[in-house]
Amino acid sequence: MKIGVLGFQGGIYEHVNMLKRLFSEEKYSGEVLLVRRERELNKVDGIILPGGESTTIGIIMDKMGLTSELRDKIRDGLPVLGVCAGAVLMAKKVVDKIVGEKEQDTLSVMDIGVIRNYFGRQVESFEVDLHIPEIDEKAFRGVFIRAPVFEILNDNVEILAKLGKVNVAALQNSMIAVAFHPELTNDYRIHLLFLKMVKR
Q1: What pLDDT is stored for residue 84 in this prediction?
Q2: For 182, which DSSP code?
Q3: How far apart are CA 105 and CA 62, in angstroms?
Q4: What's the CA gap between 49 and 112, in Å, rounded?
Q5: Cα separation of 139 and 174, whole Å?
Q6: In the chain, pLDDT over 70 holds for what percent of residues?
Q7: Is residue 28 over pLDDT 90?
Q8: Which residues are the active-site residues?
Q9: Domains of the chain, start order
């Protein structure tokens, strides 16, 4: 099993390190690859789109000629985990809580709308326990940094977690979107859920 991490900007190596730990502790035979070019994308069985700055990641991805290829692969079933900015890149609709409708090119692969910066800017970052039945009954510590929330655009999208009345994790086919940062915790259960999807 080869898992790619999109390697342009953001929390790249936190995901790499968590995947390596997961492979070791759960006895998975796996390899982690940084994906920056089409030839690397062609080698992976699943890909993580990390948190960071979604506009920046999108611009670099486009300049590297990776956007259309990645979009096609995801639409053809390549499993993907989008984290915060990575989830924004997956969305079909993007709005910013502060400035409103956002003209932003995305991969447009998942039937979610995103409200960026829903909880505020960097200084309003916080942590909170989340209930995610898909992984198990034990609470998952969500780290929210300039986090979005998700609007569900199609009934084939399953809500994985809510915070109050808003959606902060969603699943559609082989795509997982999370608004928080599991790679900044010691808990790899979100990544394990993703690996199980890749292995199917």
Answers
A1: 95
A2: G
A3: 10
A4: 16
A5: 23
A6: 96
A7: no
A8: 84, 181, 183
A9: 2-199 (3.40.50.880)
pLDDT (tens digit per residue) in 39-79: 999 999 999 999 988 889 989 999 999 999 999 999 999 99
- Residue 107 corresponds to which tokens in the numbers above? 């991969």
Burial grade of 49 (CB within 10 A; 0-12, 13-18, 19 or more): buried
130's tokens: 């989340």
pLDDT the model gives residue 101: 63
In angstroms, the CA 49 to CA 40 distance is 14
Judge contact between 47 and 78, C-beta under 8 A.
yes
**What is the number of helices (H) and of strands (E) in the chain?**
6, 13
What residue has token string 């399953």?
A: 158
- Mind listing the pLDDT tens digit for each residue in 112-162? 999 988 887 777 788 999 999 998 889 999 999 989 999 999 999 999 999
Cβ-count burial 153-176 (b if 16+ within 10 Å, e if not): eeeebeebbebeebbbbbbbbbbb
Cα angle, residue 11 at apex, residues 2 and 167 outer, rounded to 5°: 95
The single-letter code of the amino acid at 179 is: A
- Spell 87-123 as b/e; 16+ CB within 10 A means b: bbbbbbbbbbeeeeebebebbebbbbbbbbbbbeeee
